[in-house]
Amino acid sequence: MSAVLPDSFRPRRRKRRLVIVALLAAATMLCATMGPAWAAGESSPSGVGGRVVLRAGWLMEPDNLNPFIGYNGSSYEIWSLQYDYLFARNPDGTPGIQLATEWPTTDNGGISPDGRVWTVKIRSGVKWQDGEPLTAEDVAFS
Fold first, then answer.
1. How many domains, in total, are found in the chain?
2. Domain containing 69: what range?
């Protein structure tokens, strides 16, 4: 004897309904968050003669502003705005440098032949907010 399942139990239809509900919920949230701005008649600032305000939002709060103990992705976004790294990614996703002068390689002497010692040359003229110059000791500490 076989049982006939109602349409709501069929996986394809259920999945399709869930997708439709999720899309409707997302559209509702978008309209709810953008509605006050539209109602206030805010327009894109021209930056000429007026004050420009940048509002940024995150999906979650940063767990910590201290880069030595934080771990959330939103924290990394803030740190990248606050601190320069030795190496970073360029906006196009390719590897780049910030505080280093070049990528260490075996050819330029930055990586020892056994690969255990890396020597990174840092840019000159970089200073901390108190005016003290950045040193190799600072990099080793952090």
1. 2
2. 59-98
